Queue: 2 jobs
Job 1
Amino acid sequence: MPNRVSEYKRAGMKELNKLTKEELIREIKRLRMKEKKPADVYSHYKRLGELAHDSIILNNENGEIIEANGSACRNLGYTYEELLSMNIGDIDEGYNSNEFSNFWKNKPVEKQYLFETKHRRKDGTVFPVEISATAFIENGQKFITGTARDISKRIETEASGLKAKAQLTSAMKIAQLGYWEYDVQEDYFIFDDQFYSIFRTTAEKEGGYKMRPEEYAKKFLHPDDQKIIAEEMKNALETKDPDYSRQIEHRIIYSDGLVGYINVRFFIVKDDTGKTIKTYGANQDITDRKKIELAVMESEKRLFNILNNLQGMAYKCKNDEYWTMEYISAGCKTLTGYNVDELIDSKSLPFNEIIHPDYRNKVWNKVQKALHQKKQYSIEYKIITKDKKEKWVMDRGSANFDDKGNVMDLEGLLTDITRLKETEQELIILSKAVDQAPALIVITDKSGNIEYVNPKFSEVTGYTFDEAIKQDFRFLNSDKQSELIYEEVWKTILSGRAWSGELISKKKNEELYWENALVSPITNPEGKITHFIAIMEDITSKKQTEFELIRAKEKAEESDRLKSAFLANMSHEIRTPMNGIIGFSSLLTGKNLSKEVAEYYKSLIIKSSNQLLIIVNNIIEISKIESGQVHLNLGKVDLKNLLKEVSSEFSYFAKEKGLDFRFGLQLPDEYTTIVTDELKIRLTISNLLNNALKFTKNGFIELGAKYNPKEIHIYIKDSGIGIRKSMQDKIFQRFRQAEETHTREYGGTGLGLSISKAYVEMLDGKIWIESNIGEGTTFYFSVPFKPGSKKEKKQVSQKKIKI
């Protein structure tokens, strides 16, 4: 291309116009660089193409890209010609031309600056980069050269490490584990308080939370185990595996000099170059567990002799190709037909010869795998008895290891499972019986995914076999059941135990049903849970009957209690005014009564008579309401005048009691005349005001009304004793009061609020309460707004209200 450009240039501007766009850009760049970049700069940056991975870009103070290496082209997706026609702002997400110029204008040359930003590729993708930039001056002009390294993987690694650390910290707080970190570059440990508590000391005693490795080893590591720990740390620093982790057990020295054991689990963090920069983990004191393990070993030795009485054959053998027997229990004769002395030390026959040829390799491989993992083994295989019969046996055992981790011998138990194998065929028959079972049966894998449901399941839930298969069994859970129940179920069965209880589940049609469930784990020969089975009985009808009986019983008990309380209350409420009437009537027949005393007695008789009349009227009225004999008499009512009349009447009673009576009418004139039943409104207000007077010792009582859309709200507010929250829904029931004991301070039948509620609901309104103990009470009731501007006819309603 340069030759062609030169040819066009020599031919003149007219011919130059025939260049392609790319050729023209390259030519312009060449001319600009000839002016701005001297030959020695070219020579300096010729080495850029030799770098393998990092992008290297040369630009001037204005951000114009002057040169770039091949890695820059590959990393950003642009051609070399395209980059030379661009500005740094075209690839840098955080670029600002003014900030860029000002930054480099005042910075000294030949000094390296490190910072992070984000670059944008040609395809629009954005990725994080670390920039290392330096300014230099050539022929009086300042240039900036920068190396951009993609740090995506490093950021991901750091985020992953932080996440893992956060998860580990949270878990350790719950499990009470001691946390530690080792900073490789700074060469010191960082411990937490729980870590120190394991060693029976504190950070304060040890001089803080940081400690050098050699100091830690000297103070806390058992001398015989220090080499093991050093080797583990070396492996952690040299490993290439970014997910490397280890778990080891070793001895420690407590601060009081005693020896203990800890379990250490640790992880590593690498930087983007693959270098291990940190290790961290948790310590757990396992001294008690180790003591138990030693005690168990002693116990096993004592129990060794008991094995002769077990069904099956207990053994101890070498880990060799013959399974050379060192000990065999007396059950050997019953199981194999051979005497003990025929198999001990392979005198007559190596035990391996008893194993069926088809299973010898399988047994060897499985035992060796378990030994390598230091786990128990459990194997099913066939043996050939002395009389040439085949038997199925279950072989369960484990290895004894020396201090160096070498296998010393194997101990185990062989049991005859021939009958068990024969019953597998019987299970096929039983599976057919399951299909016909009247209970719902579900079998899931160990994760709870359904593998089998019987026909009864589909019949009850509405889900077909195909719809249920592979579903998580919890898809039947309903939101009516506490999540704690489901957590208890899974916790129980995952521990290997069965769970039984009642659950509320959901059918396909969203209908809820009750079921009595038994959920059990199914384990394989190795004892691992492979499946769960749930057997459930639909008890919805039974539960409904049970709930109805409980509700009926509770209702009957409540009704009986209320009636008892009412009769006791009535006995007191009626007897009090009657005693007054009879007593003061007797006194009036006495001689030598002054006129003033006689008048006083008469007033008391009248007051008691009125009180008795109110009680009797309330009882009659509540009976009429319940039997549907109370009717509405609708007509025009001037609500403003009605409230003023009632206010005048009760302001007198309030004044007698030393209370402030307030009247708060917030009704515009156009809303004061409505169609309603005046008597029932008046009686409702009077009942509520009487209630306020009764329960207010000092302060105020307020009667008021205000307009809400389509209805009038009338309220009675007091500064009385208040009503606790638990009673606010009950006080409108018959014979209920906020205080229900025989010794209550305030009298009353408990019928006034029930009657008021019935009246309000007959008028298509509602009644409610706002109250706090010691802060007073406000009763509200609403009356539908029916304008009464036209002449209204009285109407009679026989609406029955349930109270």
Job 2
Amino acid sequence: MKSRLTLLALSFFLLEGLTNAAYAQHTRHGRHPKHAQQPAAPSAPEPNPMKLWYDHPAGIWEEALPIGNGRLGAMVFGNPGEEHLQLNEDEFWAGSPYNNANPHGGRDSLHKIQQLIAENRYQEAEEMSSRDFVAEKVQGMPYQTVGDLHLRFDGHDQFSNLRRELDIQKAVARITYTANGTVYTREVFASFPDHAIVIRLSASRPGKISFTASFSTPQKGSTSTNGAHRLFLSAIGPDHQDIPGMVKVQADLDIKNQGGSLKAGDTSITVRNASSVILYLTMATNFKNYKDLSADPVKLAADQLAWAERKPYPRLLNDHITFFRNYFDRVALNLGKTDAVKLPTDERVKQFAAGNDPQLVSLYFQFGRYLLISSSQPGTQPANLQGIWNRFTDPPWGSKYTDNINTEMNYWPAEVTNLTEMHEPLVQMVKELSVAGQASAKIMYGARGWVTHHNTDLWRMTGAIDGPWGVWPTGGAWLCQHMWEKYLFNGDRQFLADIYPALKGSCEFFLDVLFKDPATGWWVVSPSASPENGHHGFVASEGTTMDIQIVTALFSRTIRAAQILGKDIPGKDKELVAQLQDRLAGFAPMQIGQYSQLQEWMQDWDSPEDKHRHISHLWGLYPGNEISPYRNPELFEAARTSLIYRGDVSTGWSMGWKVNCWARFLDGNHAYKLITDQLTPIESNKEGGGTYPNLFDAHPPFQIDGNFGCTAGIAEMLLQSHDGAIHLLPALPDKWASGELRGLKARGGFEIDLSWKDGKLTRLVVHSKLGGNCRLRSYDALHLPAAATASGENPNPFYETPVVKKPVISPKASLKGIAPRKVYEYDLPTKAGKEYVFVIK
């Protein structure tokens, strides 16, 4: 991570003379200038209102509305009598730098555990894994709340005509109500270009705004005032598992009133009889990077406050909206609109399953994009288990980064929904893990390269945690897959060169730890687990299907990256490529078991009654691309059978994964059924998760990955590009017979606009960023004058399909054969920067 600069040499006078882009280079970490470089997106049509709205205040946190700029986050409750903002800063975590690699591991322990597993001595293997590999004390640090801002309005407990809304196309929360004959309005947003949370209070009559502002925090800290209009909160993060809390946070609030008076107490400020008020809130920490806590949060917060206040409010708001819409408006989705749109959002969720509300799906889709923009900006931390919104000091699962599905799922929408810049924080974290993880690889496994297991945190912890099921060394390899996918979508060769050392290091680790199973002669990952699932009362295993799929993909992609980069990588990497190719040849194949299922483990242990939330063995279907109806129909059928056995209703994030899987199974109606299950009020879904009133995903409790997973799944139903071609409307459900979309991305630098009616494509626009062959796949014959009927493999290198070994099939299996719908394929030669428009009759 780049060093944080603390503005020590800058004065406010100098700040006044800087441009946005120039100042951004001096704000925390020197990372914000990337903001100013984003290209403007075309203005978007507004076929449907992009607002969440309610006719009552938030009674609980899961009804409050989230705002954020990637670094600062707040939940806005919208209560007339007491406005409440629960506050977060993305780098305010418990603890301080540490390493949790178990020192008792090493090559000897590794080989002994591998042998125990090969001999089916699972209890002994797990006991040894727990002793030698699972972290002794430190299981990861939890993400923290900074505290709360309270604005108490005397006499506003009695109100009428309340409307509380979040405009996700402008990233502005707004509350209006009437009290004592006056109409009051509050606007709240987290400014992206100006790095502050801004609250504007106005009234229909002059001199009617009176309130008291105060901070509170569950952390060790204090609140104070300075003059009549400045309020401060200073705190330090907690100790956790014997790791001292050393992250300091500073929150600064400045109140600017028009009319009336201000009076400061020791820990609060009271405004009387103002006509309008603007409150500016900044937060900063002493965090520079995962090894360095030497920044000055007091100086940073004060300078950011001065920067935000240099603009008049209309410009501050306009610059914020313009910045946000440059991302948000890249994609538009219209699935139709009914009268259900007139209802409050919580009522729409309650009625969705039994009603007809296609606009709620497009709202939910865009809400996922809103959340990703708001919780993951270039230069910030990646979106964690709750994005950036967390009210606890001890949140569920620490609100960390769970790398056996949840972290990755957060970023599934990044490329396909045209938010590639939002991927940058994850890229940075992978680079950091590829350094931090070298210690765990060496200490625990006696291996080269780097490893991370199923969890990490702000401090880039990479050891195994929680128990023997945490001895799953494939987390880093899965994260590397995101790096390859980012390359496929954008074709940025410099990015590939930049991330290549992480891919290479992950491969070196597995070259050193792969185990040749004596019974089969296959190379397998051991010890490992199929994430969070078990067999015969144990979790320890070798050669799980997910590991086979992920490590095969890692080796194959790294080989391809080395070939693409050629002379730009060390000559000795030719030897690495040869080693990877040799090891790939001996990898275990996928297997189809006695129940016609895709086996989860190397042994045929699956039960058709297993309803486990993880569907890890389907990784090769999604997000991987090893399982295809056109290239390996036996595996495709077996994977489909496995998902049928698992069932539909589950935890919220699991249902989001299943939306994507059913889209990859080309079954739009079943994918839509999972969306319906997802958009079920949590209190009505007794079997699993669902959706909270504010559209947050319910595991339960809240986990943001379900929002991101379902957003990616909706995109996957409408456009796929993983299987050798751009598949148009591959999994269109009957409910979406007509609609239009603009701006979804396909691999190879293509952006696609589609319109359809009665299930038939009516208009297609292809925007080619990189040029090259554009192979289009459709269920209907299309008249595309500039295109030719496709034949053979797609010559576009971004559409190479993986070589997959023929599966081993149990003699007890009964495959029926699934014939996918007939498709038509066309090759369209394109030039970089050109647009191709087709009206289809």
